[in-house]
Amino acid sequence: MPTQAAAPVAAPLARQHPGAFALVDGNNFYASCERVFEPRLIGRPLVVLSNNDGCAIARSEEAKALGIAMGAPWFRIRHLEQQAGLVALSANFALYGDMSQRLMEVAAALGCGQEIYSIDECFIDLAGVPDASARARQTRERIQRWLGLPTCIGIGATKTLAKLANHIAKSAERKPGSYPARLAQVCNLLELSARQRDWLLQRTPVAEVWGVGPRWAAQLQAHGVQTALQLQRLDPALVRQRWSVVLERTVRELGGLACIGLEQAPAPKQQIACTRSFGQPVTELDDLRQALSHFCSRAALKLRQQGSRAGALLVFIRTSPFRPQDAPYARSLVLPLSPPSDDTVRLVGTALQALQALYRPGYRYAKAGVMLLDLQAAPPQATLDWGAPDEDGGDGEGSGRSQRLMQALDAVNARLGAQALRLGSSGGGGSPPAPGCAEPAARPWQMRQQRRSPRYTTRWDELWQVRA
Ligand SMILES: [Mg+2]
User: How many angstroms is it from 414 CA to the middle of ligand 1?
Assistant: First the structure.
């Protein structure tokens, strides 16, 4: 690869493990989306509030500087409106989802494979891509110029190193002095010498490494492992024995051995995604329905396993970018869930509604997926209503019946296999889709969103207005 030829010091690593990945990540994504259409917000402290205006789920740099923590309840920071000019907006997932789709489209051109990892992050496979740094800078500038969104791009031999490079690119920009300024915005570890890479890893706290959660970070620190470099130098066998194969994989990835391919990433904490490329192109709505029901059911299970509820849901379908003979089509849609839900029936119903709006006949679809967004803690189990008889209308969200149904669903599937019990709409078994699941009745999406900006890019009646 020309990049490595230009930096011969990196060659031994590259020869051994020729992989290369980029991570493209939007900076303060929700806040940045708001600023695209409301430039007066640039430079002001800005937070985006979760559904029903409960707490801060995104913060601009200026808001972070005020000491506002992620997840801070609105009533605790409200006084900063008067005191510090804080602007708070309700989450506008229709806008963020649409801007995300555009960002992903532009980012995809960076390499030959893309994994959408979260609403504002994607991994790009750079194998065989010449001049990766220059292309990354060009991609970054395009996203900035065409969409108005700031991003940072990290490049490394493995996904874990690409994540780390992204952290460096972001920190070098935000916190001058944390890392060398020339690594800001785009940081390509493949261009550096082994000594330079070690130096960067040594400056990076172990808790910043992808896949090292707060619990493992604390345990590692107790063992004297403070930095990413110290983690990289641990004996993988010992790590597997004392912690897990997952952390062992992280250690190997930090050393440049690619263990995690595209599509195999561990789920990020704030979003749960289930996406898949199809074995062969899919053209029928019914097949897409089955696929999405299946993906959404899996995502819903993960959601319940981590004790969360989703406040919004993103669905996307697309044709293959690698089959130029096929007409291209790629769309995504975000629907809010109000109140937030962990109910498979409700989530699948909403996903299928989104699909109905997205689907166009005549295309050969190659990939589809569901992402659960705006995750929040479910109410404590103590509210479970095990014994009480169901009252009329008592099958609504959060009712004992809905929770018991989900508990039963999970229990049966845990014993008999993941797909033993499933919604009719996910297909298989020869039975027709359950009418209630395949064609969900329209639901009123009322939410407390008093501060929501217009859905500039997805609603004719909310188009951006330019005053003369
Ligand atoms: Mg981001």
Answer: 34
The answer on pLDDT for 311 being more than 50 is yes
pLDDT at residue 440 greater than cutoff 60: no
* Confidence at residue 11, expressed as pLDDT on a 0 to 100 scale: 35
Distance of alpha carbon 360 from alpha carbon 330, whole angstroms: 10
Has residue 387 got a pLDDT over 50?
no
Q: Which domains does the chain have, with CATH numbers?
A: 2-27+95-254 (3.30.70.270), 272-380+396-438 (3.30.1490.100)
Distance of CA 319 from the midpoint of ligand 1 (Å): 26
Q: Which two tokens stand for residue 430?
A: 């020869």
CA–centroid distance, residue 461 to ligand 1 (Å) = 29
Q: How far is the CA of 29 from the centre of ligand 1 (A)?
A: 5
Q: How far is CA 386 from the centre of its chain?
A: 34
User: pLDDT tens digits for 72-105?
Assistant: 999 999 999 999 999 999 988 889 988 998 999 9
Q: What is the mean pLDDT of residues 378-386?
A: 48
220 CA distance to ligand 1 middle (Å): 26
Average pLDDT rounded to a whole number, residues 227-232 = 96
Structure tokens at 157: 């031999």
Q: What is the pLDDT confidence band of residue 50, given thresholds at 50, 70 and 90?
A: confident
Taking 3-state DSSP, the helix, strand and coil percentages for the chain, each rounded to the nearest 5, stand at 45, 20, 35
Ligand 1 centre distance from Cα of residue 254 (Å): 21
Whole-angstrom Cα distance, residue 288 to residue 165?
Answer: 36
Distance 170 CA to ligand 1 centre (A): 10
User: Cα of 416 to ligand 1 centre, how many Å?
Assistant: 38
Q: How close is the Cα of 272 to the center of ligand 1, in Å?
A: 15
**Closest Cα partner for 113 from 150, 159, 166?**
159
291 near 368, Cβ under 8 Å?
A: yes
Distance 130 CA to ligand 1 centre (A): 26
What separation in Å is there between the alpha carbon of 24 and the centre of ligand 1? 9
C-alpha 435 to ligand 1 mean position (Å): 39
Please check whether residue 384 is in contact with residue 400, taking contact to mean a CB–CB distance below 8 angstroms.
yes
- Cα 95 to ligand 1 centre (Å): 16
| Residue the block writes with tokens 């990433």 | 265
Global confidence as pTM? 0.64
Q: Hey, what are 287's tokens?
A: 């097949």
Per residue in 237-262, pLDDT (tens digit) is 999 999 999 999 999 999 999 888 87
